[in-house]
């Protein structure tokens, strides 16, 4: 028994140190990778704002009206005929009985919903050109484009549904004043939340 105990071998301090260093490197790589993914998603969300804004203005340059507000859709005939013409007043409006953006468009007759089909019919954005469905953003919620009011400002906004509070604050700080209810970037709720992952129901950027 004594001989067995004397011959038993354990890890040396050097071996333990090497193992701990390797574990630390792996953890560091995982955390850094997660940070890179998070940063990429934040940038993707803002880039989606730029892409949608560019799509709206491309349509305007081509047809002289904003998508959704275009009064000439039926005169083009063919696949354009089912789309309800807009009133051409220069505003992409919400429904008469609504005051906020619609993130779940399904039919014609509302300018902010017709916008999506018209952009697809024009070939400016990809997707089923019979659909009024909203585009979705990097965090899974819908995107809406409408002349509406968010935190006291009424204007044309590109709006994102259910954005994490920390993401909204990063973008607002980088591109505006960092305050949810002032400036050209606004949230429907404060960015200072109990947890960073608390969702801002509507995060809006003026265009």
Description:
- The mean pLDDT is 89.
- This protein has helices at 2-7, 13-63, 111-121, 165-175; strands at residues 143-150, 153-164, 185-187, 199-206.
- A hairpin with a 2-residue loop joins β1 (143-150) and β2 (153-164).
- The relative contact order is 0.12.
- A 4-stranded antiparallel β-sheet has the order 1-2-4-3.
- It is built from 4 helices and 4 strands; from the N terminus they run αααββαββ.
- It is of the alpha+beta class and 207 residues long.
What percent of residues adopt helix (DSSP H or I)? 25-40%
State the major sheet. 4 strands, antiparallel
Overall average residue pLDDT: 89
Number of continuous helical runs: 4
Order of helices and strands: HHHEEHEE
How does the helix and strand content classify structurally? alpha+beta
Indicate the overall shape: elongated
Query: How many DSSP-defined strands?
Result: 4
Computed Rg: 25 Å
Number of domains: 1
Distance between the termini: 82 Å
Biggest sheet strand order reads: 1-2-4-3
Q: What low-confidence regions span 5 or more consecutive residues with pLDDT below 50?
A: none
Strand content: 5-15%
Describe, in short, the structure shown.
This protein is of the alpha+beta class and 207 residues long.
């Amino acid at each position: 028994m004594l001989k067995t105990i004397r011959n038993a071998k354990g890890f040396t301090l050097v071996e333990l140190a090497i193992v701990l260093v390797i574990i630390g490197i792996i953890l560091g790589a995982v955390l850094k990778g997660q940070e890179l993914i998070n940063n990429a998603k934040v940038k993707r969300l803002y880039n989606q704002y730029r892409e949608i804004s560019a799509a709206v203005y491309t349509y305007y340059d081509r047809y002289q009206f904003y998508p959704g507000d275009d009064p000439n859709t039926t005169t083009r005939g063919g696949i354009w005929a089912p789309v309800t013409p807009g009133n051409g007043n220069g505003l992409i409006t919400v429904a008469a009985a609504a005051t906020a953006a619609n993130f779940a468009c399904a039919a014609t007759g509302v300018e902010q919903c017709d916008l999506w089909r018209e952009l697809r019919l024009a070939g400016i954005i990809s997707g089923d050109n019979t659909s009024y469905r909203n585009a979705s953003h990097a965090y899974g919620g819908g995107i809406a484009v409408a002349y509406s009011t968010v935190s006291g400002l009424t204007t044309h906004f590109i709006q994102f549904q259910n954005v994490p509070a920390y993401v909204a604050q990063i973008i607002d700080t980088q591109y505006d004043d960092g305050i949810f209810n002032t400036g050209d970037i606004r949230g429907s709720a404060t960015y200072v939340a109990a947890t960073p992952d608390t969702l801002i129901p509507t995060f809006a950027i003026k265009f």
